[in-house]
Each structure stands twice: as C-alpha cells, then as structure tokens.
Amino acid sequence: MRILVAEDDSRLLTQLDAFLQQNGYSVDLADNGEHALFLIREYSYDLAIVDIGMPKLDGFEVIRKARQADISCPILILTARDRWQEKVEGLDAGADDYLTKPFHNEELLARTKALIRRASGQANPTIQFGPISLDTVSEELSLNGQALDLTAYEYKVMEYLMLNPQKVISKTELTEHIYDQDFDLDSNVIEVFVGRLRKKLDPTGELKPIETLRGRGYRINRSL
User: Fold this and answer.
1) In this model, does residue 6 exceed pLDDT 60?
2) Which CATH architecture has domain 126-220?
3) Which residue numbers delimit the OmpR/PhoB-type domain (predicted)?
C-alpha cells in the first residue's frame, strides 16, 4: 500500500517514514502543503496522512483542493492536542479521521489499516474468498486455515488484490502501490510474485485464485 505523509516537522516526518516502511508501506513525503497537493494530484495513494499546520498551504486547503479534484483516497489528519475546532474543520473539509499529537505509532498503524480497509469496502479485518483468508492485522494469508509462508512482497501483492476484488489491477498499478517511486516499472518482478502466489495457493491448479486478463492485468477470482 502506498501512503503520502505530509508533515513540516522534519523529525516527525523522518520517524513516520521509517515506521511505516518498517510495517510494509511505500511512503512518499512532503514537508509543505504545496508539495503535498502536487503529489496527491499526481499519484494514486491508498492513504494520505496530512498535518494541519504546514507552510505554503495548510492541511485544510490541501484536503479541500484534493476533494475538489475528485481525489477519493482516505485522509487522516494530524492535529494539535486539545484543538477540537481543528478536528471539526478537518472532517468538514473532507478528511476521514484524525489523530491528535502526540500519538502512539501503534494507534497510527491501526487507524491506517482500518481506513484502507474501509475505503475498499472491507470493514472486517479478515478478508475471505473461499478457502483463502487474509488477516490484515496479523498480515497473514491462510489456505484452508493453514498459514502460508510468504515473502513481504508476495503478501503485499495478495493484500492489494484482495482489497480491490472488483478491479482489474495492472502490473503498473501493483508496482506503484507496493514499491517506492524510483522502482523500475518495466520490471517483470510482479509476474514472478504472482507465479509464486499461484503455486503456494493452488499447487494442483484447480483453485485458480488469481485471474490474468490478457493485456489488462490481474484480478482475484471472486467465484472461489
């Protein structure tokens, strides 16, 4: 999953970047509102974390302009402690949730996962397709109740597919959402990951959990 973090406190920005990457997210950073608005208009994000008090353009304006541009990714605002007015204004501007400073990283992570799930229409932290189950809290993929041994990127590919069951996901989109910006988009590594997932989920070739739509991309088999 790809996240935009917009925060003008360089120390906090660095900490959030490291923490989110450690938890498997691809992260883009902005230290002012103008840069944040450019990024959110230019790229597709699964979540944006936006500080209210940024230079050049405050967080409220970033959110308003993003929503006016029909950008629908969930937005989590960061706001100063005890400023309930900021929370209300941020939600009215189009934010989906808020977190007051200082906060625990574990709460940020839990809210991040919940917002991404809900944006995909998945309120339950466990996503089920037939015998395949994905637990977004423990980040574990199971087949018939047995946990599978996946690499971090194999899990990311399967999580993105299962969180977007109505969509055909191109290799480019998968690459953009599981890697940082400078990754080679022409690489065939996504094909390799999908091939490994098929072998682990469907060793006999009967289940066919991941469909390939030629020239378009991949989709989870919704008839499992």
Assistant:
1) yes
2) Orthogonal Bundle (1.10)
3) 124-222
Rounded CA-CA distance 89/210 in Å is 42
CATH 3.40.50.2300 domain locations along the chain? 2-120
pLDDT tens column, 45-84: 999 999 999 999 999 999 999 999 999 999 999 998 777 8
Q: Which of 195, 199, 198, 161 is nearest to 178 (CA)?
A: 161
Contact (Cβ atoms closer than 8 angstroms) between residue 155 and residue 197: no
Task: Count how many Cα atoms sit within 13 Å of the Cα of residue 81 in the half-sphere of its side chain.
Answer: 3
Long-range contact set of residues 63-70: C-beta below 8 Å, sequence gap at least 24: 63/90, 63/93, 63/94, 63/95, 64/93, 64/94, 65/37, 66/37, 66/40, 66/41, 66/94, 67/93, 67/94, 69/41
Q: What is d(CA 87, CA 99) in angstroms, rounded to the nearest whole number?
A: 9
As a whole number, mean pLDDT of residues 205-219 equals: 91
Question: What is the CATH code for 2-120?
Answer: 3.40.50.2300
Intervals of CATH 1.10.10.10 along the chain: 126-220
Q: Is the dihedral of CA 149, 167, 221, 114 positive or negative?
A: positive
- Contact yes or no for 132/197 (Cβ under 8 A): no
